[in-house]
Design a protein that fits this description.
alpha/beta, eight-stranded mixed sheet, 19 helices, 44% helix, globular
Length: 437
């Protein structure tokens, strides 16, 4: 009976948050309207029983965060935790572990350390970490599908058979570009094919701007886009595990990158050490980069500028097998399967990733909102729509990361490809196949 009451009250909490209700339960509660944007100025107390007692009074929830103290994301999480405690009585104890949290979580979760909420890449949550709770029923209770991104949820469900994480920081990839550089070069339309892309590169070069910025840190990601267009992710993974690159269209994909370099379409110095090349966009020396949406904030912050950013999907290639996919990913939040306060933990996750605090996270951390009814920063215009339109995202280099023994070597070879070490695509693929002998 207590479990049923907890689920009912948790649902009422989130419904009140979205609908701007007074926090009362029962007949006065209303289901959220997925067509309306939540009022970011309202965050009324919710989930409270009659008499004014707070439902989670005395409860403590521990969260391991992937951010470091002082980062914009960490600041918003801390503020949300204080507000959640004021409204529900639950204290959220946050341990900011930084980006290396992934090196700690598997062992900690296996040992069932005192953790209720974890925060990390959604692929690792789904495929690596033990003791993660199935959130399917809790998510249905709050109508999570009505504001979240189906492409990301569907991928998690495909991996593990159920929903085990809630998106906090969605990501989308493609070709991010400076709209002003395009206009100055006389480019009036975003390229949709590889031939159109090369035409844009020539116009940018003629205008005195380096067409494509490329940092060595992302060479594997950029080349992976070219491979996916020709081969698809399943075939790439097969080649990565077994070899046979020379007998596939990977030869064509590699040759196209070599031709791109030989035509002078890489920005001066590319591939540079991160973030030197991407910063050239902020300095007006380059126009495009293949990356995920966080590159916009990195460039703006690093260079002290406000680039007039645009985004288009990676161009299609002749005879391509996967010409419409786009990279999508997320840093997400999950509840441990052994948590003694799983409902309170889930309620805090929803509290953080919707309405006021999600909007604040999007604004202050310059990221895509987790709640699709909120508003993306100007630099990320179009990213929400791109994610909502996708039914399945392309992974972050998963095909060429499948063979863990060869992953570091292949990543280095992708850098060498952009550096011009290989004369032909056939040479590059022959070098790849030599790794399997």
């Amino acid at each position: 009976m207590k479990k049923l009451l907890s689920i009912i009250l948790a649902a009422a909490m989130v419904l009140a948050l979205f609908a701007g209700c007074s926090g009362k339960t029962g007949e006065e509660s209303k289901s959220p309207d997925p067509t309306k944007t939540p009022d970011a100025t309202q965050n009324e107390p919710a989930n409270q029983p009659e008499g004014g007692d707070k439902q989670y009074e005395g409860v403590t929830v521990t969260m391991w965060s992937m951010w470091s103290s002082g980062e914009p994301q960490a600041n918003v999480i801390s503020e949300a935790a204080a507000a959640f405690e004021a409204q529900t009585g639950a204290k959220v104890n946050i341990e900011f572990k930084g980006r290396d949290v992934n090196q700690l979580l598997s062992t900690a979760l296996e040992a069932k350390e005192n953790i209720d909420i974890i925060e990390d890449d959604y692929q690792r949550i789904a495929n690596v970490y033990p003791n993660i709770l199935d959130l399917t029923d809790m998510a249905k209770a709050v109508n999570y599908d009505s504001w979240s991104y189906a492409c990301l949820n569907n991928q998690v469900i495909e991996w593990v058979g159920y929903l085990n994480s809630i998106v906090e920081q969605p990501q989308v990839g493609g070709v991010f570009y400076d709209k002003d550089a395009f206009a100055n070069a006389g480019v009036t339309a975003e390229p949709k094919t590889w031939a159109e892309f090369l035409d844009v590169c020539q116009k940018l070069k003629d205008s005195g701007v380096g067409p494509v910025a490329q940092d060595s840190a992302y060479c594997n990601f950029a080349f992976y886009h070219q491979l996916v267009r020709h081969l698809g992710e399943e075939k790439i993974e097969e080649l990565d595990m077994n070899g046979g690159w020379s007998d596939s269209d990977a030869v064509i994909a590699a040759q196209e990158i070599i031709d791109l370099r030989n035509a002078g379409y890489l920005a001066d110095g590319a591939p540079d050490e991160f973030p030197s090349s991407e910063n050239k966009i902020g300095y007006g020396q380059a126009a495009m980069i293949v990356c995920a949406n966080y590159v916009t904030a990195e460039v703006n912050n690093n260079t002290g500028t406000e680039v007039n950013w645009g985004l288009f999907n990676y161009p299609a290639v002749d005879g391509g097998v996967e010409n419409t996919s786009a990279y999508g990913g997320a840093n997400s939040l999950a509840v441990t399967s052994y948590s003694e306060n799983a409902q309170a933990a889930f309620d805090f996750i929803i509290f953080l990733t919707t309405g006021e605090f999600d909007q604040k996270m999007a604004t202050e951390a310059a990221q895509i909102p987790a709640d699709s009814r909120n508003t993306a920063p100007a630099a990320l215009t179009g990213t929400i729509e791109t994610l909502l339109a996708a039914d399945k995202p392309m992974t972050w280099c998963a095909g060429i990361n499948a063979n863990s023994d060869l992953q570091p070597t292949i990543k280095s070879m992708c850098v060498e490809l952009f550096e011009g070490k290989y004369a032909t695509g056939a040479d590059f693929c022959a070098a790849l196949d030599a790794l399997y002998k």
